[in-house]
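Our collaborator T.R. sent over the components below with a one-line note: 'Predict the complex.' Nothing else. No constraints on interfaces, no templates requested, no preferences about which chain binds where. So this is a plain run: every listed entity goes in together, and whatever single assembly comes back becomes the starting point for the next discussion.
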Amino acid sequence: MREEIVFWTLAPLMVLASTALLFARKAVYVAMSVVVIMVGLAVMYVAQDAPFLGVVQIVVYTGAVMMLFLFVLMLVGVDERESLRETIKGQRFVSFVAAVGIAALLISVIGTVAIDQDHVAGLDRANQNGNPEAVGVVMFGSFVVVMEALGIVLTIAAVGAIVLTHLPRLVPALNQRRRSDARIKGGLDPVNKPMPGVYARHNALDVPALDPNGTPIEDSVSRVLRARGQDKDASEFRKQIGDGEDES
Amino acid sequence: MSPMNYVILATILFSVGAAAVLLRRNAIVAFMGVELMLNASNLVLVTFARTNGAIAGQVNAFVVLVVAAAEVVVGLAIIVAMFRARQTISLDEPSEMKG
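Returned assembly:
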């Protein structure tokens, strides 16, 4: 009786959530409803004497896989709009018919399979030491080679993902040495621009620096201030330091 | 309760997943359709493991789960690489590749 309640509560919810895959506009809504389906499936596994798989389902699917989906969604832009224009004529109709056809075919064929309800073997005997132990004994008993192959598959998948998303460097990295070389090659000033106010007995931002000869350096004042006409010429400060060395 | 209920639920979920793969243009949504199909098959495996009293069905479901996880990693990496190359994840765009 308890199983009936679990099933008939979850099954309509899961089918409802699965329709989001077909009709939801935003990919994030689809991801969240797939999470609902995954959690529902996990509860059904637990209800069917498979608590180990139920926990693994929650950890792997809702915890890792769907979060990975969400990460990638955020990475490629959640606002990606799906174009509704049909590029192949009648594709939507044909694929709708195909999907309904698959459903009808599977239900009609599998529906004829008779499972004798009173002779459901159940896993009570296999699970008598607990389900994880029973699964583990089979997994690392008769399926041990499969498990090793799975380990290889997972390693290959991880390496493959790194290779696929790795960007090779096409040009050498731009470090300080290269920047400096480029500046000298381009005939630019090899050193930093002077700060405004240096040598001028005045360190306001709008006062140009004076070079050792006493001429104002235009570049030392911010481009914005010059464009607004808010910079000062340095003549008044130039007087204070004397008009060059040669006159004295 | 008849175990057939679970099988029919799995069939419905499988068909919805297949329809999503066929209908949706967003690569990630289509990929989630594939995931739904894999999960539906897992539900059938777990159900028949119980009806037959064989724990091997659950181990098979576990194998499917691991393979699905590996597939997700590679598939999402391909989607990211595709997004880098074309600035879109629409499945319509690669049709431009045909000569």
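Summary for T.R.: The radius of gyration of chain B is 17 Å.
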